[in-house]
Amino acid sequence: MTQRIAVVEDEPMMNDLICFVLNNAGFKTVSYTSARAAQAGLNRQFDLWLLDIMLETPTAGLDLMKAVREVNPNQAICFLSARDSELDKITGLEIGGDDYITKPFSKKELVLRITNILRRTAPATAAKTSSELLQAGRIKIDLHSRRLWWQGELINLTAKEFDLILLLIQNDGRTVDRHTILRIIWDTNYYGSGRVLDDTIRRVRKKLPDLQIETVYGEGYRVSGL
Q1: Which of 159, 194, 201, 216 sits a CA distance of 20 to 30 A from 28?
Q2: pTM
Q3: What is the pLDDT of residues 163-207, one digit of tens each?
Q4: Which residues pair with 7 in a beta bridge?
């Protein structure tokens, strides 16, 4: 089944180019040239939203992302930006973006990054095997569909939140240092602010208040008492 991507980019030539590249790579794109126009697509089914972080206003991209996530908390989202500052990247990831691409980018990079996000966030389409299910105390994780249940209740998580919980659970009782978490979950060459990790931890604690995520000051985090 062809995967559908909403492209929200206010520069017409860039919008056309992105759609052309992704369509040629086998995706189906729907183009929007403003955050306001994209409101019409909030209830449509997309596998990914590709958003320019700065549209009509400096915060329009971030505001649109929040609106998308209100409709579908698990929606895969990737940001685009021409800004050089790391601030955009940090801000986008802190509020739950799955990835971030800085302009200019190559056609190959665009397709690879989009493909990787969709692979991580794709729902299950095949029968489950025992190797795809992880049971850890009150948590059950479907590794194939990337879904998590706490005491039988399905918890809505972003891709980074899921990856973080999985990493901590796989190291149950052991402290995972901050550098390791940033390197594994965000990027092998991540040099941005550690605030993105702190913010993700805060969101996970809010969604799973009974999961004991301990802060080991000066080191990192660990889970216990599953």
Answers
A1: 159
A2: 0.58
A3: 899 888 888 888 888 888 887 787 644 545 567 888 899 999 999
A4: 31, 50
Given this model, what pLDDT does residue 102 score? 79
Q: How many CB atoms lie within 10 A of CB 167?
A: 16
Count CB atoms within 10 A of the CB of residue 79. Answer: 25
**pLDDT confidence of residue 125:** 39
CB contact at 8 A, 176 and 222 = yes
Cβ distance 57 to 34 under 8 Å? no
Question: Tens digits of per-residue pLDDT, 30-55?
Answer: 999 999 999 999 999 999 999 988 88
- Structure token pair of residue 196: 């993105």
- The percentage of the chain sitting over the pLDDT mark of 70, rounded to a whole number, equals 84
Residue 218 has a pLDDT of 86
222: left (phi over 0), alpha (psi -120 to 50) or beta: beta
Q: Is 114:122 a contact under the CB 8 Å cutoff? A: no
Check if the beta carbon of residue 43 is closer than 8 Å to that of residue 71. Answer: yes
Q: Which residues contact 168 (CB under 8 A, 6 or more apart)?
A: 176, 213, 221, 222, 223
Whether omega for the bond prior to residue 104 falls within 30 degrees of 0, making it cis, is yes
Sort strands 4-8 and 48-52 into parallel, antiparallel or unpaired: parallel
Percent of the chain with pLDDT over 90: 27
How many Å separate Cα 152 from the centre of its chain? 24
Q: What angle do CA 77, 82, 88 make, to 5 degrees?
A: 60
Distance between CA atoms of residues 128 and 212, nearest Å: 28
| Residue for token pair 């990493």 | 167
